[in-house]
Amino acid sequence: MKVIRTIEELRAEIRNRRSKEASPVGLVPTMGYLHEGHASLMQRAREMTGTVVLSIFVNPIQFGPGEDFETYPRDEERDLAVAESNGVDIVFIPDVSEMYPQPTKTKVAVSELTSLLCGASRPGHFDGVTTVVNKLFNIVKPDFAFFGMKDAQQVAVIEQMVRDLNIDVEIVPCPIVREADGLALSSRNVYLKPEEREQALVLSKSLQTALEQLENGSVTTAGEVRTLLNNIISEAPIADIDYAEVLTFPELKPIDNETKVSDTGSAVILALAVRFGRTRLIDNVLFQLKEGISHV
Ligand code: AMP
Q1: Which helix (H) or strand (E) holds 174?
Q2: 168-202 pLDDT, tens digit each
Q3: How confident is the model over 251-276, as pLDDT tens digits?
Q4: SS3 of 33, please?
Q5: 2-174 belongs to CATH 3.40.50.620
Q6: Ligand 1 pocket, residue 37 CB under 6 Å
Q7: Can you give the pTM of this predicted structure?
Q8: What is the per-residue pLDDT for 220?
Q9: Do the beta carbons of residue 61 and residue 87 sit within 8 Å?
């Protein structure tokens, strides 16, 4: 496994590998502090491509003022061990000064899809994401890029950007990896105090209960689902709900309260963002409701 810190060296290495073998190049963009969720992306990339590039970069321009850019957890040594054990070929770990030698005057911004959910509570966040992902695509020129459905809105936004700008890459969405008790893995879970960690289980519990009740018909409309999600999350006294939404996916159109979820005829996402103390967690479930639930 090669550890590369400069764009020039990375480009040379990828050119070299492409000249020797025709197999596709896969990119797994991350901010590091790697866990099993990231590992699942690396494993998928390993299965589908001949060269797996993992990028680790805590991207300053996707953090807002007062967010956790400075304190975001970092552990390079451990990350390299995780990458190696998951078959990564190249780890790209640039400094901020390598990616942004001067403040960028160019940003890539996707409209509409970024104005709600996390885009509403984190203004500018998705512009930072699409800009850095675009830079990584231009640097690596991957055939496939792997993203977790944990960040479902990010997947929708990046797929839109790829279509709109004719970027020659296939986006591969990968399922959410969870702890045994249901909590979705996240680098930010280390921030959680024991009591917050315990109460954070209402996220997956509310999603699971909503799915079950949609399936058995005890709730049918989007309004009933919103109420159910809010009620279950509110069982955790410290949970501070940012949003608990019911939308079509990947269009991210909120479904009217009166509309039956089964009448939308498209894939539906239940998406949550909830603060536990200083830590904001997100979770979601994506499904198609026709005759019963099918996961998509
Ligand atoms: P991050 O380092 O948090 O920016 O995440 C890098 C990539 O890993 C993103 O595509 C995330 O969606 C994905 N990811 C993070 N957590 C999970 C998880 N629990 N399951 C699957 N993918 C994840």
Answers
A1: strand 170-174
A2: 999 999 999 999 999 999 999 999 999 999 999 99
A3: 999 999 999 999 998 999 999 999 99
A4: coil
A5: yes
A6: yes
A7: 0.97
A8: 97
A9: no
Cα(34) to centroid of ligand 1, in Å? 9
CA distances from residue 227 to 119, 231, 249, 253 in whole angstroms, order as listed = 22, 6, 20, 18
Fold of the domain built from segment(s) 193-295: Pantoate--beta-alanine Ligase; Chain: A,domain 2 (3.30.1300)
- CA-175 nearest atom, ligand 1: 21
- The secondary structure of the chain in percent helix, strand, coil, rounded to multiples of 5, reads 40, 25, 35
The model's pLDDT over 35-45, given as tens digits with 9 standing for 90+, comes to: 999 999 999 99
Q: CA-CA distance, 189 to 180, in Å (whole number)?
A: 14
Tell me the two tokens of residue 163.
Answer: 């279509």
**Mean pLDDT of the region 100-105:** 97
Query: Which residues in the chain are classed under CATH 3.40.50.620?
Result: 2-174
> What is the rounded CA–CA span in Å between residue 173 and residue 134?
17
For residue 66, count other CB atoms closer than 10 A to its CB.
Answer: 6
The token pair at 9 is 């060296």
Q: How far is the CA of 147 from the centre of ligand 1 (A)?
A: 7
The CATH 3.30.1300.10 portion of the chain extends over 193-295
Share of the chain above pLDDT 90, in %: 96
Average pLDDT over every residue of 215-242: 98
